[in-house]
Amino acid sequence: MAWLRRNGLRIYAGFAVLYMLVPIIVIAVFSFGETPRDRLNFSLGGGFTLEYWENAFAIEELNDALRTSLELAALSTVASTAIGTLMALALVRYQFVGRRASNLLIVLPMATPEIVIGASLLSMFIIYTIALGFTTLLIAHIMFSISFVVVVVRSRLIGFDRSLEEAARDLGATPFQTFRYVTLPLILPGVIAAALLAFALSIDDFVISNFNSGTTVTFPLYVFGVALRGIPVQVNVLATMLFVVTVAAILLVIWQQRRAERMAAVAPEPEPQPQVA
Amino acid sequence: MTIGRRFIPYWLLLPGAVWLILFFVVPMYFMGELALRSGTFETGFTFDWQFSNFPDSLEGNEEQIIRSFWYAGVATILALLIAYPLAYAIALQSGRWKLLLLFAVIAPFFTTYLIRTIAWKTILADSSPVVDILQALALIPDDGRVLATSGAVIAGLTYNFLPFMILPIYASIERLDLRLVEAAKDLYASSRQAFLRVTLPMTAPGIVAGVLLTFIPAYGDYVNAAILGGTNQAMIGNRIQSLYLFQRDYPEAAALSFLMMALILVVVLVYIRAAGTEAFMGEDEER
User: Fold this and answer.
1) What's the pLDDT tens digit per position in B207-264?
2) Which of A148, A220, A269, B149 is paired with A79 by a 20 to 30 Å CA distance?
3) A184 exposed, middle or buried (CB, 10 Å; 0-12, 13-18, 19+)?
4) Which residues of A touch B125 (CB under 8 A)?
5) Rounded CA gap, B194 and B182, in Å?
6) DSSP designation for B40
7) Which of B118, B124, B263 would you mutate first to test chain A, the one with the most A CBs within 10 A?
8) Could you tell me the domains of chain A?
9) How big is the CA angle at B214 (ends B211 and B215), to the nearest 5 degrees?
10) pLDDT single digits (tens) B73-82
11) Considering the entire predicted model, what is its pTM?
């Protein structure tokens, strides 16, 4: 009984985390065989097969949708990461009139339900009879990613030791050189984390895209389109692939960051080294 | 540095601020404008201060509006009940497993939201083991189903927005000064009293943030109702989506989403006045 009291919460945490992972497990399992139509069992309708992994790219429409999503995510990530990093620098580094208003402008999109963001953008596009498609999707994706980028980069900047920049300037570096060789390498892990988040948000977005896509089909939109008929196994295969790649990328970033921190910890007096990361 | 350091922050902010104003603030204005138009899709819509669109848009949708409140409310409470002990365990009792557990909590974000929801559809399908167990426990009738019921939609909402509840609560428990809890115990508070009088109030900001971050997206969601619900589980989001994309009754659609926005904006602004932008930004805002 005493044991249960001590460990009850831990056991609960184990189950709760398992619950978080259940759908991911289901998706991975059903990438190796048909989802049974009526009864869920893990014997896989038709048995275990690697067939769908071998033919992961056999559905032309799905490939097109995935390609569109990847292009969209890549462009939106680059743009929103650049724009958001600049905003984070302004907000953390400077005191200026309008700072509170800027904070509000960044917070509100995160606090607004996606459907309202999608609907309001669509309203504007309707009024100006702007053709919906890849461009309108890109506009929307950059817009909703910016706020998240700012938040992530900001948290990295707040713990930043500014004496390193002063040292660089004392040693005769120009402001640009200081930024390029001191500031940027030090905030780079935060910027990369922000970029990963922006990429994940873009590739995952359904609601806002649903409103502003016109006839352009992204990966989530394709899935929604076929959801009622039952999704092809390839969707599970590609979802599992995306999951593995994202997790690997994140682990790589964490590992890099730890290594950089360890290296910094070895030197007793951290010096501004160009390009630590 | 002759251009004046004073202007540097504005230059840094400029691209982002322009983008957010042009594609977030301005569209809100146009949604309001569209909501005041009249006409049909065939004849075109003209702006004529059609205020009656607002009451009209509510009419016939009362059921979905109330249902959305109800579903999102229950899902938020369930998420809170699941999240608090989990966040507590991760923050204070997980030791070297902490990073791994946190990672597992955000792992669902790395698979597509839609595909996760479809996976739940598979899990909750008729005569799946989950449904068998619920039937055996007499929680649902022997011939009862889970899919296409309110329960399925609420379960989907709870699951999908759970990380938004866990993370802020986790952050506030992490920040909790444990010496205060010890002090309470030294002063003869029972574990339960110490929790209720110290831990809970001190982590209240995290709870409020989690509740907002869960309730707002859950209220506007239509994916869970579309995939896990049946015809009687439509939420207000489903109405807005179909008005915009299928019926193309733009003024009514815009009026409805404008009202939803206004409601949520009031809640968020009241919260920000009380607690600052901290809940959404993390970290303290005025350093």
Assistant:
1) 988 999 899 999 999 999 999 988 889 999 999 999 999 989 999 999 999 998 888 8
2) A220
3) middle
4) 38-40
5) 8
6) E
7) B118
8) 70-229+239-266 (1.10.3720.10)
9) 80
10) 999 999 999 9
11) 0.87
